[in-house]
């Protein structure tokens, strides 16, 4: 704190990201990164951008990437927005679509960046309790609101909401934007992008950080009606009109075009998730059904913080949230097979 700070800065409560440890050789299963590298075609496309043209500004509209995303999902480029990580895309959505008098609704157990953005943009919000099984009940969202947002699959639970349920939510809230944050959709769900042509109040965000292994590049996107996209463009062009650099545009577009590599890596993560889940259940863990690249688990006889500390001693880091309802759970990223084995060996020792 300093006398130079504005009152606004004093009151901000920033997001706390998962640790990025400096130590090598840790089995890092705490931030849902992909264990497999980016597509070789994406790496080659980025290397090809490392040339004299870097003296020039990038395309302010990232047309090449919008086209690649539009082709992949069978939508128009005017229905696509791209930004520096989906966190930035979400920030623009909060700023441009959720600043209304009525409160924004999101699940009580959900992505912890949402309340941070509410604080940054002065948006009133209400946390809607998930049911006993940590599922979203659409009926709970049929009340006055200035917008609705939730991750699907949800984070940190991994639980998936069906497209049918999302349609019911959209129909029950025709005057609100419903934002489906699909950071993990490629690990077991069907994208709600299939619904954007029918619901003008639907905005879907995705990231290249998880299923496309490009967390370090910082690229995210949104798909929705061109009017919603225009709101995001207006915010972007009032803030930073060149958010994606030349390397990011080239690498992200190539990543979307490499279907085969993407399919192979996501499938491998799904197979590993099911294997880790069944072994952990055999060790007595309760593991929520996950459609993501992580699992959310608790052990009835062992304290979650103690397990996390025990894992850390053995060089395995996982995420523990000291929050109501979930303080006895651990969120564990699915890694490469040898990382998963190290996790399971360490758990065996602790339990
Ligand atoms: C990881 C994650 C994001 C952010 O992804 P970036 O594109 O890396 O900013 C957004 N929402 C959820 C739910 C996430 O887990």
What this model shows, in words?
By secondary structure, the chain is an alpha/beta fold. Helices cover 36% and strands 13% of the residues. It is built from 11 helices and 12 strands. A 7-stranded mixed β-sheet has the order 2-8-7-6-5-3-4, with helices on both faces. Strands 9-10-12 form a 3-stranded antiparallel β-sheet. Strands 1-11 form a two-stranded parallel sheet. A hairpin with a 6-residue loop joins strand 9 and strand 10. Helix 4 crosses helix 7. The mean pLDDT is 97. The structure holds pyridoxal-5'-phosphate. Pyridoxal-5'-phosphate (PLP) binds next to helix 4.
Radius of gyration: 20 Å
Q: Give the total of beta strands.
A: 12
- CA-based shape: globular
**How many helix segments?**
11
Binned strand content: 5-15%
Helix and strand element order: HEHHEHEHEEHEEEHHHEEHEEH
Which small-molecule species are bound to the chains here?
A: pyridoxal-5'-phosphate
The overall average pLDDT, rounded, is: 97
Largest sheet: 7 strands, mixed
Uncertain segments are none
Could you give the order of strands across the largest sheet?
2-8-7-6-5-3-4
Helix/strand-derived class?
alpha/beta
Percent range for helical residues? 25-40%
Q: What is the rounded distance between the termini? A: 43 Å
């Amino acid at each position: 704190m300093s006398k130079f700070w504005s009152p606004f800065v004093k009151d901000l409560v920033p997001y706390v990201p998962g640790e990025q440890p400096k130590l090598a050789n840790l089995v890092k299963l705490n931030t849902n990164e992909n264990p497999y590298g980016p597509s070789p075609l994406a790496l080659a496309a980025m290397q090809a951008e490392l040339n004299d043209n870097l003296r020039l500004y990038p395309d302010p509209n990232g047309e090449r990437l919008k086209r690649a995303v539009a082709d992949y999902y069978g939508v128009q480029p005017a229905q696509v927005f791209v930004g520096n990580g989906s966190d930035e895309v979400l920030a623009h959505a909060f700023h441009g679509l959720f600043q209304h008098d009525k409160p924004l609704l999101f699940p009580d157990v959900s992505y912890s960046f949402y309340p941070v953005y509410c604080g940054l943009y002065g948006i009133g919000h209400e946390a809607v309790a998930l049911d006993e099984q940590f599922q979203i009940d659409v009926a709970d969202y049929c009340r006055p609101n200035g917008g609705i947002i939730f991750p699907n699959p949800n984070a940190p639970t991994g639980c998936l909401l069906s497209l049918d349920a999302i349609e019911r939510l959209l129909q029950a809230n025709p005057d609100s934007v419903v934002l489906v944050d699909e950071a993990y959709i490629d690990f077991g769900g069907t994208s709600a992008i299939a619904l954007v042509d029918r619901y003008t109040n639907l905005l879907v965000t995705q990231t290249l950080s998880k299923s496309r292994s490009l967390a370090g590049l910082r690229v995210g996107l949104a798909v929705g009606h061109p009017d919603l996209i225009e709101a995001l463009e207006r915010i972007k062009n009032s803030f930073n009109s060149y958010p994606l650099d030349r390397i990011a545009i080239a690498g992200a577009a190539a990543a979307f075009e490499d279907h085969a590599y993407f399919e192979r890596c996501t499938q491998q993560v799904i197979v590993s998730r099911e294997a880790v889940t069944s072994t952990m259940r055999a060790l007595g863990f309760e593991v929520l059904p996950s459609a993501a690249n992580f699992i959310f688990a608790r052990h009835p006889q062992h304290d979650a913080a103690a397990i996390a500390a025990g894992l850390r001693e053995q060089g395995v880091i996982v995420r523990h949230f000291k929050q109501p309802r979930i303080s006895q759970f651990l969120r564990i990223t699915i890694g490469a097979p040898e990382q998963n084995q190290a996790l399971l060996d360490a758990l065996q020792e602790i339990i």
